[in-house]
Write a structure and sequence with these properties.
Structural class: alpha+beta
Protein name: Tudor domain-containing protein
Helix content: 10-25%
Largest sheet: 5 strands, mixed, barrel
Number of strands: 13
Domain Tudor: 17-133
Strand content: 25-35%
Shape: elongated
Strand order of the largest sheet: 1-2-8-11-10
Pfam family, one: TUDOR
Radius of gyration: 19 Å
Organism: Cardiocondyla obscurior
Order of helices and strands: EEHEEEEEEEHEEEHE
InterPro entries: SNase_OB-fold_sf (IPR035437), Tudor (IPR002999)
C-alpha cells in the first residue's frame, strides 16, 4: 500500500516559540514558514532527491494517462527537482502542481511529472501556512501593494520566531512573528515594524474569522 506524505499538524504544537525560516510570502494573511526542527531532515532528503533523480529520473517519467488530481509526484523547475502534488489537470497538456515544501504553485506540462518513490514520502511537507496576528489593513479595501511589498521586504527568506495564537485548522495558524537579528540589526517585532512604516494598524483581536471563510457578518460587510 502506498504511503501519503504527512502534513505537520499545527494544533499539536505547544504554544511556545518556534524558530522558523520564512520561505514564501503572499500577504500578511498568507505566508509560509519552515520549522527549524524539520529543516535538517528536509535538507538531507532534498539532496538525496536531487542525486537520485539526476541519475534515474528519465526512467521515472509518468504517462499522461497515469496522472490524476491529488497524486504526489516529482517535478522539475529551473533545473531543480521538487516534491509536489497535482492540484488541477487542464486542457492542452497543462497541469497545476502545488510544491508543498516551498509554499508555491506552478503551471507546467503534463510530461513534467515523475514517480515519487516511497522513500521520499517519509518526511512531512515543509511549508506551514501562517497569518500574522494582531494587525489589519488600514482601510476596508484590504492590503495595499505597498503593505505587501513592505511585508515581503521585512521577512521573506529570513529566519525568525513564531508563537501560535490560534489555529484556523490543522495546517493554518495565526501567529505572532519576530524577525531574527541579522548582522547589525536587532530582532524585530514584525507587527510593530509594519505599523511604524504605516503598512497596517494594530488589531485587538487575534484574527477576523471571515477573512478565512469561517464567518460572514450579518450585514455582509467586512469591517
Amino acid at each position: 500500500m502506498e504511503t501519503t506524505i504527512r502534513k505537520i499538524n499545527l494544533r499539536n504544537l505547544a504554544r511556545a516559540e518556534f524558530e522558523v525560516r520564512i520561505i514564501k510570502v503572499e500577504t500578511p494573511d498568507t505566508f509560509y514558514v519552515q520549522l527549524k526542527n524539520g529543516a535538517d531532515d528536509h535538507e538531507e532528503l532534498n539532496e538525496y532527491l536531487q542525486r537520485r533523480m539526476e541519475r534515474i529520473g528519465q526512467n521515472k517519467s509518468l504517462f499522461m494517462e497515469q496522472i490524476f488530481v491529488g497524486m504526489e509526484i516529482v517535478t522539475k523547475e529551473r533545473g531543480k527537482w521538487y516534491r509536489g502534488i497535482i492540484e488541477e489537470i487542464k486542457e492542452e497538456r497543462k497541469i497545476i502542481i502545488n510544491l508543498k515544501d516551498i509554499g508555491r504553485r506552478m503551471e507546467t506540462e503534463k510530461y513534467n511529472c515523475y514517480e515519487l518513490e516511497e522513500r521520499f514520502k517519509e518526511t512531512p511537507w515543509q511549508a506551514n501556512k501562517c497569518s500574522l496576528a494582531l494587525i489589519e489593513p488600514r482601510t476596508s479595501r484590504g492590503w495595499t501593494d505597498k503593505d505587501i511589498k513592505t511585508f515581503k521586504y521585512l521577512i521573506e527568506g529570513y529566519k525568525g520566531w513564531i508563537k501560535i495564537k490560534e489555529c484556523i485548522n490543522e495546517h493554518h495558524a495565526v501567529v505572532e512573528l519576530t524577525k531574527a537579528a541579522t548582522g547589525l540589526e536587532e530582532a524585530k517585532d514584525v507587527v510593530q515594524e509594519m505599523i511604524k512604516r504605516e503598512c497596517g494598524r494594530r488589531a485587538y483581536h487575534t484574527f477576523k474569522p471571515y477573512q478565512f471563510g469561517m464567518l460572514i457578518p450579518e450585514d455582509g460587510r467586512k469591517n
